[in-house]
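Deviation from plan, reported transparently: zinc ion complex.
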Amino acid sequence: MQALVLEEKNRLSLRDFPVEETLGPRDVRIKLKTVGICGSDVHYYTHGAIGPFVVREPMILGHEASGVIEEVGSDVTELAVGDRVCMEPGIPEPASRAARLGLYNLDPAVRFWATPPIHGVLRPSVVHPADFTFKLPDNVSFAAGAMVEPLAVGVHGATKAQVKPGDVAIVIGAGPIGLVTVLAALAAGCARVIVSDVDDTKLAIAEKLGAVTAVNVARTPLVEAVKAETAGWGADIVFECSGNARAAAAVFEPLCPGGKVVFIGIPLEPIPYDVAGGQIKEVRVEHVFRYAHVYPRCVGMLASGAIDVSSLITRTFPFSASVEAFEYAATSPAGEVKIQIEMPD
Ligand SMILES: [Zn+2]
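Because the crystal trials were delayed, the predicted structure below was used instead.
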């Protein structure tokens, strides 16, 4: 079966790549329909590694996916052939200590698509546990279904922040994860979200998502903009989505006393952290790693219209052009948020 294979750093090919998979009693076989390109996929392509995860042999990319069930295991009763679904790409050991504690995303043994040595899903079909496969209502498209994976990061962040109705939040960084965090913060009840970036095209997209104030920090200091928006008090929550060391080191400055910070963007290097700046405001700091228990919530909000991700899907390539899609994504083109690949019928 044809798959998009990362042969090694900077070398992709669309080629026959058989993957041996057996359908267990609690598994389903899914025909892939839409797969989003994630920053991590691009990073493996251009760098061959992310932190300790190194691509040592050819690996299929892709982990943001939706599809149609084409076969169900003997013990699966809640899903049926023909169901439209999206899939959670990280599978823990079901009986691990982390999983039993409800922290399955932190299970050291988690197997996550397109994270070496686990193959991703830019291929015709995949076998996946039914427990990590979620039905899409008819009014949620395959494209939106493939956005549930990044959206889940924002929803997990908003959940960790314990957003209260009327909160003012800051989202630092208007990339795909920043923008889904904006959507999650607004859906969770924020009265206003102040989004900072240095790219006006990304900020323009952020402004269209709802009650958003866009701040280009190349021109306006974030603290000044936040003071103006909050009568000098500061924001209730900062979602740090840039991973940028300087931005991340200054997270406490625009925050109100008793505020909260959620670190979502992953800095590539260790960063300095202003402990005293957090102490004088008694800031509560949270960190998120991927997500847990939020897929049904994301699907529910897409179905009800509480969250609309359509404006974030800025380009779609056919699977036959997926190498070109990655080459294009690797140039970080201005104005693009989420690039997706549509699988053939
Ligand atoms: Zn992703």
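DSSP finds eleven helices and 20 strands in the chain. We consider this an acceptable substitute for the interim report.
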